[in-house]
Structures are given as C-alpha cells and as structure tokens.
Design brief:
The radius of gyration is 23 Å and the shape is globular. It folds into two domains: 293 residues, Aldehyde Dehydrogenase, Chain A, domain 1, CATH 3.40.605; 188 residues, Aldehyde Dehydrogenase, Chain A, domain 2 (3-Layer(aba) Sandwich), CATH 3.40.309. 38% of the residues lie in helices and 20% in strands. It is an alpha/beta fold and 516 residues long. Helix 10 links the parallel strand 12 and strand 13. The structure holds NADP nicotinamide-adenine-dinucleotide phosphate (NAP). The site of NADP nicotinamide-adenine-dinucleotide phosphate (NAP) has 34 residues, from helix 8 and helix 9. NADP nicotinamide-adenine-dinucleotide phosphate binds next to helix 8 and helix 9.
C-alpha cells in the first residue's frame, strides 16, 4: 500500500469566521441530540440494558448528554467471548489490510471534526481549542499507527547463515482489554484502541464512565469505517463493577490502560495472577499520572516562562497528565515569575466550555470538584495563597485558577496529583537544586526547563528524570509522531504513545527457520 508521509492534523483557527461558524453549527447540532440513548456493542450487535447511566455536562449540571447502557459481568463475559471469536479471522489479515480501516476511520473523523469536538465541549468540558486538539490527536493516532503497522511488514534484518532461510515476524497477542480515561476521551481512547487492533488483536473497550457518549461516537466512526463485528466490543460500565472481571479473565491476553496511579497499579497487580484455564502471562501497558514541573533558571525569559506555566497549569482546568503542577523557580527571579503567573491566572476567563470566550472550563464531575477544593484547603495550610482558591460562579464544576507560593518541596500539594487548576510555586537556591526538587517525586511524566544557559540545559537533559522533557516551551501539548509520549516510575510502564516503538507492545515476535 502506498501512503503519503505522516503529517499532523492541523488545528482549527477559530479566528477565521468560517471556522467559528462551523463550530457554532456543530455545537447546535450536538445540542439537538442531547439526551439520546446509547447501547453496548458486542459482536456487532447493539445491546440495550435495563440499567443505564447518565452522562452529564460538567459545565451545566442540569444538562444530560446521554443515557448509556451499562454492562455487568455477564455482558462482559459475552464481550470477551465475542473478541475471542473474532480474533481467529482478524489476526489473519495483513498489517496493510488492517491499516486500511484506520485510514478510512481517519477520513470519517476528519469529515466530522467539528461535531466530534462539539461533543467534547459538552461532555468533557473542553474549551473549543482543547476539544479541537483532542479530535486532531485522534486523527493523528489513526494515521500514524496505520503507517507504523504497514512498516511492520518489512523484513526484520537477521544475521544469515549458510543453508538456512530465517525470518522474524510480529504476530498479535489475542484479546485485549482497553481502558481509557475521560480526560482525552477521543484521542487517548482512539490511540489505545486502534494500536491494539491494527496489530491484529481484538478488544473489549470499556470507556470512562464520565465520557461514554464521545466513546459511542468513536464506535460509530469505526463502524462507518467497516470494522468487522467483534473486533472492537464496546462495553460501557463502571470500572469498579466490571474492571476486575475483565482484567482477571483467563482469556484476557493484555490490558492497555491509561488513567490514575491507583487504578493502574491495581490492574498491574491483578493481571500478574494466573487464573485457571489461562495459558499465558498477561501483558500490561499502563500510562498513569504525573506531578509535572517547570523549572525556571535565573537567566530565563521571565515573561515567556510565566506564560507557559499558566498555560500548562490551567488549560483544560489542569486536567492533563502533563499539566504543570509545580513551578520550580530560581530564587533570583522567583518574585518576578510568581507575580506574572498570578496576573495571568487572575486574567483567565473561567466559564462554560461551549462559550468561545472561556479559557478555563469546569473540572469533570462532583468527585473531582470536591477533591480539588480539598487540596486547595490543604494548600492554604502548606503555602501562601496568591491567586484563586475558590470555586468560580456558574452551574458547573468551576474552580478559579489557583496559585500557591512558597510551597515546600515535600508538601502534599507538591507531591500528590491534584488534577485541577492548581499550581505550587517552589523556590530553588540554584539550578541543580531546582532539578533535585523536580526529580523528588514518585512520578516522571513531563517536565520543562526555561534557561538560556547551555550547560544547564545539558545538565537537565541528563539528570531531569522524565519521559518527556521540554526546553523553553510548555510541558503540555505533545504531538503524535513528534513527541512520543509516556513517563517513568509511577507515571507508567515506560511506553511511548505516538512513537515508533509503541505498536510492538501489542505483538509477539515469531522466528521461523527453514533448512534448505
Ligand atoms: P481513573 O479513575 O484511573 O480511570 C481510568 C479508567 O479506569 C476509567 O475507564 C475507569 O472506569 C477505569 N477503572 C476504574 N476502576 C477500575 C478497575 N478497578 N479496574 C479496571 N478499570 C477501572 O483515571 P481518570 O480519572 O479517568 O483519568 C485521570 C488520570 O489519568 C490522571 O491520573 C492522569 O494523570 C492519568 N492520565 C495519564 C496519561 C498518560 O499518558 N500517562 C494520559 C491521560 C491521563 P470508570 O470511569 O467507570 O471508573
């Protein structure tokens, strides 16, 4: 198959009147479809359950996004069996054949780009720009993994010996359980599902319970792209109720998870146990949390650093695994940077995600809202409240961008993932001290350094222990193919989503030798 080289999907410029109108039209279209019901899809069949759950708009607690059927262990069993059956035929397709479905799905998504983004404004509380970036990333994953899969058809270079022909090929693993988070409800869901599928596995996809409708839209895209029945089984339901069942199942061959450290470690432990009838050791790919830091050196561009701290900390209300939640500032420029970050935080407009003027939307649900407000109370004991610190007005889960100053490196707000619009400012006595503080965490996902000192940048390149390190730019906004993404330590299993090694995780290598 001949495909043109991968290029990232461009982001929409909503300052262009046509784009702006297009997004408003999409929001109106989606609004007219709120409150619909969505089934499970098992073996290509739609299953409506008696018990369903509601998805609610975090920007407006009274607005129902949709009613979604809810799986129980019996239906989860059905979904695993369906994936197991479909594996027999799906695994026999070539990488190129399977990639074809991804390219088709990318084309479908591109046609529905504004509509998919609009669903995320409503269901995930993403502002226009954030929702647009999420859809673009989903398209990128389809295009990128399709190409990476085709490349896996190339012969693997082996040492040749006389009298034998040898080859190594990559074959799929089997049935995977795919468990995405709500914070990139289209991009990560798409990425972790299609990476498993394009390599020949079949999956049970259990979406996050706060964003099941956008997950249902993904299923519609894949069905429109003609994905065969049983290859992706769509199983909304509570992680607490069906998660263990899916992970423990003896026919589950691997789990691809993105979410919290708490759930990730639980899955990792449970998957290690071999159950009766299970004839393999399960593989777990787990991408987890972060406590990401931006380090600002004494000679850095203060204005730029402050802008990027504010952007990394408060966009999408700080609900990115890569969000800056610690800004570690050299003592010589501490006050300058702190004052500017505070100004920027105070200027940010908090409001409903569907309003184009909103820069910071709500946090995802009541649980997140209470958790973030609780951490803010802890922060008031541990540091100096410089900005925010209160809920923002509106009928949603709004919280003011919050800045704490003079936070100690071991304070809870400097160690625990808050996952909200809260940043802790920490003072460092010199650059090495700043990197020591940055590394003093159980996580290791993203980090940035602002410095004009080449020796310091080289020092950080070696010593700053994160999976994604950025110099003189923000610590969010990784692009597929450009910034392979994933972290160290408790941030995950060290895989790199959107990178050239990623697909290998969903395969096993088979060597075949023929004596001539
Ligand atoms: P979460 O609470 O861990 O949930 C993630 C997924 O796990 C959801 O689908 C959830 O289902 C499911 N789940 C819950 N309990 C389960 C169980 N016992 N067994 C199996 N699955 C279970 O995380 P989240 O709040 O959705 O996402 C935020 C977290 O993800 C943050 O920590 C963030 O840093 C991390 N994250 C990491 C990356 C990365 O690349 N490293 C990217 C994005 C997000 P329910 O919704 O039904 O509970």
């Amino acid at each position: 198959m001949v495909v043109k080289p991968f290029a990232n999907e461009p982001l929409s410029n909503f300052a262009v009147p046509e784009k702006h109108r297009d997004m408003l039209d999409a929001l109106n279209l989606v609004e007219s479809q709120l409150g619909n019901t969505y089934p499970l899809i098992v073996g290509g069949k739609e299953l409506h359950t008696k018990e369903s759950f509601r998805s609610v708009n975090p920007s407006n607690k009274d607005q129902v996004i949709g009613f979604v059927s809810k799986a129980d262990p019996k239906l989860a069993e059905q979904a695993i069996q369906s994936a197991f059956e479909a594996f027999n035929t799906w695994k026999r397709k070539t990488f190129s054949e399977r990639a074809g479905y991804l390219f088709k799905a990318a084309a479908v998504m591109r046609r529905k780009k504004s509509e998919l983004s609009a669903w995320m404004c409503y269901e995930a509380g993403k502002t226009w720009a954030e929702a647009d970036a999420d859809t673009a990333e989903a398209i990128d994953f389809l295009e990128y993994y399709g190409r990476q899969a085709i490349a896996m058809e190339q012969p693997v270079p082996l040492v040749s010996i006389a009298g034998e022909v040898n080859e190594q090929v990559y074959i799929p693993l089997g049935v995977g359980v795919v468990i995405p988070p709500w914070n990139f409800p289209l991009a990560i869901l798409t990425g972790i599902t299609v990476s498993a599928v394009v390599t020949g596995n079949t999956v049970v996809l259990k979406p996050a319970s706060t964003t099941p409708v956008i997950a249902a839209k993904f299923m519609q895209v894949m069905q429109e792209a003609g994905i065969p029945d049983g290859v992706i089984n769509f199983l909304p339901g509570s992680g607490g109720e069906i998660g263990d069942f899916l992970v423990d199942h003896p026919k589950t061959r691997f789990v691809s998870f993105t979410g919290s450290r708490e759930v990730g470690t639980r899955i990792f432990e449970r998957a290690a146990k071999v159950h009766p009838g299970q004839i393999w050791l399960k593989r777990v790919v787990a991408e987890m949390g972060g406590k990401d830091a931006i380090v600002v050196d004494k000679d850095a561009d203060v204005e730029e650093a402050a802008k990027q701290i504010a952007s990394s900390a408060f966009s999408f209300a700080g609900q990115k695994c890569s969000a800056c939640s610690r800004a570690i500032l050299h003592e010589d420029i501490y006050h300058q940077v702190a004052n500017r970050v505070v100004e920027l935080a105070n200027q940010m407009k908090v409001g409903p995600a569907r309003e184009p003027a909103s820069q910071v939307g709500p946090v995802i649900d009541e649980h997140a809202y209470q958790k973030v407000l609780h951490y803010i109370e802890i922060g008031k004991e541990e540091g100096q409240l410089l900005a925010g610190g209160t809920p923002a007005s509106g009928n949603g889960y709004y919280i003011q961008p919050t800045v704490f100053g003079n936070v100690a490196m071991h304070a809870r707000i400097a160690q625990e993932e808050i996952f909200g619009p809260v940043v802790a400012l920490i003072k460092a006595k010199d650059f090495e001290h700043a990197i020591d503080i940055a590394n003093d965490t159980e996580y290791g996902l993203t980090g940035s350094v602002f410095s004009h000192n080449r020796d310091h940048l080289e020092y950080a390149r070696r010593e700053f222990h994160v999976g994604n390190l950025y110099f003189n730019r923000k610590c969010t906004g990784a692009l597929v193919g450009v910034h392979p993404f994933g972290g160290f330590n408790m941030s995950g299993t060290d895989s790199k989503a959107g990178g050239p090694d990623y697909l290998l995780q969903f395969t096993q290598a088979k060597a075949v030798s023929e004596k001539l």
